[in-house]
C-alpha cells in the first residue's frame, strides 16, 4: 500500500516536471512564432499541423493505447515479449520507410521543402515516438519519460526558433518537430534496448498468440482512435470553419490564445492522469473498485480545487496573460482564453466520469457521445462565428464540451461508479474562492490605474506576483490529495 502510494506521488512529480518545462518552452516558442509570423501565416501553420496530427493519431494511436492497456496483463501472462517484438517490427518498418522515402526524394532531386515529404515525415516520426513513449508509460518508467520530455521540448524550442529566425516560414516549425522526433526516437530506442524491455530474437511467436494480441489491441484501441479524433475534432474543428469564414488571420488570432488555455490544462490534468493511468487499470483488474473510486474522487477534488482559482484569475486578467505569452497583434482575442479554458476543463473532468467505460473496454460509447458533441459543435460554429467572430468559435466549443460533461455526469450516476464530493468540501471551496476573488478584484481595480497594459516587463512582474499563489497551491494540493489515496 505504502509503496504504491509513494510510487504514485513520485510519478506525479516526474510527470509534472515533464509537462511544466514543455509548457514554458511551448509558451516561449509561441511568443517567438507570433512575433515573427503574421496572423495569417500562424493561422495556416495551425491548420497544417492540426491536419497532420489527426492523420498520425488515426494511424498510430490504437497501438499506443493498446500497449498502455494490456502490457500489465501480458506481463502476468508472460506474453509481453511477443507484444514488444510486434512493436519492434512496426517501428523498424516505419523507420525504414522514412529512410527510403527521404533517399528516394533526394535522389530524384525533389525540392527539400516539398510539403508532402515534410508532412509524411512528421506523421511517421510522431507515430514511432508515440509508440515508444507508450511503452514507458505502461512500464511506469516516469524517470525516462521525464528525461525524454525535457530533452524534446528544449531541443524543439531551440531548433524551431533558430530555423524560423533564419528562414521566416512556418514550415520551419514543422521541420523542427520532425528533426526533434528523430533525435528523440534514436535516444528512446537506445534507452529501451539498454533496459531490455524490447524482446530478443529468441522469442517464438505463434500465429494464434500474434492474432490474439493484435486483435485485443485493435478492439480496444480503435474506438479510442475514434474518440481521440472526435475530441480533436471538438478541439480543432472550429479552426477550419474560422478559416472558411474569417480567413487564416482569424485562425491565427484564435489559436494563439487557445494554445494558452491548452497549455494550462496540460499541466493541470496531464501529470496526475498519466501517473495514475496504469495504477487505475491494475486496481480495476484486481477488482479493488472502492480504492479505484477513491483515487478518482481525490483526482476530481484536486482538479476542482485548482481550476476555480485559475479560471477566476484568467477571467480577470486575460489581457495581461495574453500580452505575456503572445505578440501584441494577437491579443485582440484574449477573451478566448477564459472561455475555452472552461470548456477544456469540463471535457477533461467528463473523461474522469467516463473512465468506467474505458475500464470495461466499452470505449465506443465514449466515442458515440463525442461524435454527437462534435456535430453540435460544427452547427454552433457555423451559426455563431458569423455573428461573434472568433468568440463565437470559443463559445461553440465550450458549449459542446459542456454537453459532453453533462452526459458524463448522467452516465456516472447510472453506472454507480462514483464517490460523492462532500458538502463540507463544497462549502469551504466556495468561501475560500470568494475571498480570493475579492482580493484579485481589488488588485485589478488598482492595477488598471497603475499598470501599463502594453508594457511587457510590468505585465510579467504583475502576473508572476499575482499568479504565484495559484502555482504553489497547485503543487501542495496535488501532492496532498495523492497522499490521501490508499493503494494495496
Automatic annotation (TrEMBL):
<feature type="transmembrane region" description="Helical">
    <location>
        <begin position="116"/>
        <end position="137"/>
    </location>
</feature>
<protein>
    <submittedName>
        <fullName>Oligosaccharide flippase family protein</fullName>
    </submittedName>
</protein>
<feature type="transmembrane region" description="Helical">
    <location>
        <begin position="170"/>
        <end position="189"/>
    </location>
</feature>
<feature type="transmembrane region" description="Helical">
    <location>
        <begin position="217"/>
        <end position="236"/>
    </location>
</feature>
<feature type="transmembrane region" description="Helical">
    <location>
        <begin position="425"/>
        <end position="447"/>
    </location>
</feature>
<feature type="transmembrane region" description="Helical">
    <location>
        <begin position="332"/>
        <end position="354"/>
    </location>
</feature>
<feature type="transmembrane region" description="Helical">
    <location>
        <begin position="390"/>
        <end position="413"/>
    </location>
</feature>
<keyword id="KW-0812">Transmembrane</keyword>
<feature type="transmembrane region" description="Helical">
    <location>
        <begin position="264"/>
        <end position="284"/>
    </location>
</feature>
<dbReference type="Pfam" id="PF01943">
    <property type="entry name" value="Polysacc_synt"/>
</dbReference>
<keyword id="KW-1003">Cell membrane</keyword>
<feature type="transmembrane region" description="Helical">
    <location>
        <begin position="45"/>
        <end position="64"/>
    </location>
</feature>
<feature type="transmembrane region" description="Helical">
    <location>
        <begin position="366"/>
        <end position="384"/>
    </location>
</feature>
<keyword id="KW-1133">Transmembrane helix</keyword>
<feature type="transmembrane region" description="Helical">
    <location>
        <begin position="459"/>
        <end position="479"/>
    </location>
</feature>
<dbReference type="InterPro" id="IPR050833">
    <property type="entry name" value="Poly_Biosynth_Transport"/>
</dbReference>
<feature type="transmembrane region" description="Helical">
    <location>
        <begin position="304"/>
        <end position="326"/>
    </location>
</feature>
<dbReference type="InterPro" id="IPR002797">
    <property type="entry name" value="Polysacc_synth"/>
</dbReference>
<dbReference type="GO" id="GO:0005886">
    <property type="term" value="C:plasma membrane"/>
</dbReference>
<keyword id="KW-0472">Membrane</keyword>
<feature type="transmembrane region" description="Helical">
    <location>
        <begin position="12"/>
        <end position="33"/>
    </location>
</feature>
<feature type="transmembrane region" description="Helical">
    <location>
        <begin position="85"/>
        <end position="104"/>
    </location>
</feature>
<feature type="transmembrane region" description="Helical">
    <location>
        <begin position="144"/>
        <end position="164"/>
    </location>
</feature>
Amino acid at each position: 500500500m505504502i509503496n504504491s502510494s509513494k510510487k504514485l506521488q513520485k510519478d506525479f512529480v516526474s510527470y509534472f516536471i515533464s509537462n511544466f518545462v514543455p509548457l514554458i518552452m511551448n509558451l516561449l516558442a509561441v511568443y517567438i512564432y507570433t512575433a515573427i509570423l503574421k496572423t495569417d501565416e500562424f493561422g495556416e501553420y495551425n491548420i497544417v499541423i492540426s491536419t497532420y496530427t489527426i492523420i498520425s493519431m488515426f494511424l498510430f494511436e490504437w497501438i499506443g493505447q493498446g500497449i498502455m492497456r494490456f502490457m500489465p496483463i501480458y506481463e502476468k501472462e508472460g506474453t509481453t515479449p511477443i507484444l514488444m517484438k510486434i512493436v519492434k517490427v512496426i517501428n523498424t518498418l516505419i523507420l525504414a520507410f522514412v529512410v527510403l522515402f527521404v533517399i528516394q526524394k533526394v535522389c530524384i532531386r525533389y525540392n527539400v521543402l516539398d510539403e508532402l515529404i515534410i508532412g509524411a515525415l512528421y506523421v511517421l516520426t510522431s507515430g514511432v515516438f508515440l509508440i515508444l513513449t507508450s511503452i514507458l508509460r505502461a512500464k511506469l518508467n516516469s524517470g525516462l519519460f521525464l528525461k525524454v520530455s525535457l530533452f524534446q521540448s528544449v531541443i524543439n524550442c531551440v531548433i524551431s526558433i533558430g530555423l524560423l529566425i533564419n528562414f521566416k516560414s512556418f514550415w520551419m516549425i514543422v521541420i523542427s518537430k520532425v528533426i526533434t522526433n528523430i533525435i528523440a526516437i534514436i535516444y528512446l530506442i537506445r534507452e529501451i534496448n539498454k533496459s531490455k524491455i524490447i524482446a530478443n530474437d529468441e522469442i517464438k511467436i505463434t500465429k494464434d498468440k500474434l492474432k490474439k494480441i493484435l486483435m485485443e489491441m485493435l478492439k480496444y484501441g480503435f474506438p479510442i482512435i475514434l474518440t481521440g479524433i472526435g475530441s480533436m475534432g471538438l478541439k480543432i474543428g472550429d479552426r477550419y470553419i474560422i478559416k472558411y469564414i474569417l480567413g487564416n488571420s482569424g485562425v491565427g488570432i484564435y489559436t494563439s490564445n487557445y494554445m494558452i488555455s491548452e497549455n494550462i490544462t496540460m499541466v493541470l490534468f496531464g501529470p496526475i492522469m498519466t501517473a495514475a493511468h496504469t495504477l487505475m487499470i491494475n486496481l480495476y483488474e484486481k477488482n479493488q473498485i472502492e480504492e479505484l473510486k477513491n483515487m478518482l474522487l481525490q483526482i476530481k477534488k484536486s482538479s476542482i480545487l485548482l481550476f476555480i482559482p485559475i479560471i477566476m484569475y484568467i477571467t480577470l486578467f486575460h489581457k495581461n496573460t495574453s500580452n505575456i505569452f503572445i505578440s501584441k497583434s494577437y491579443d485582440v482575442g484574449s477573451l478566448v482564453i477564459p472561455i475555452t479554458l472552461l470548456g477544456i476543463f469540463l471535457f477533461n473532468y467528463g473523461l474522469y466520469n467516463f473512465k468506467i467505460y474505458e475500464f470495461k473496454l466499452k470505449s465506443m460509447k465514449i466515442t458515440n457521445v463525442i461524435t454527437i458533441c462534435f456535430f453540435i459543435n460544427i452547427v454552433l460554429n457555423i451559426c455563431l462565428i458569423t455573428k461573434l467572430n472568433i468568440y463565437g468559435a470559443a463559445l461553440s466549443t465550450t458549449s459542446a464540451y459542456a454537453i459532453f460533461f453533462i452526459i458524463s455526469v448522467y452516465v456516472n450516476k447510472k453506472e454507480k461508479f462514483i464517490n460523492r464530493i462532500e458538502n463540507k468540501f463544497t462549502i469551504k471551496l466556495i468561501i475560500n474562492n470568494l475571498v480570493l476573488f475579492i482580493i484579485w478584484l481589488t488588485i485589478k481595480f488598482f492595477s488598471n490605474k497603475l499598470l501599463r497594459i502594453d508594457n511587457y516587463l510590468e505585465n510579467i512582474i504583475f502576473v508572476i506576483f499575482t499568479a504565484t499563489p495559484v502555482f504553489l497551491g497547485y503543487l501542495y494540493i496535488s501532492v496532498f490529495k495523492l497522499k490521501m489515496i490508499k493503494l494495496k
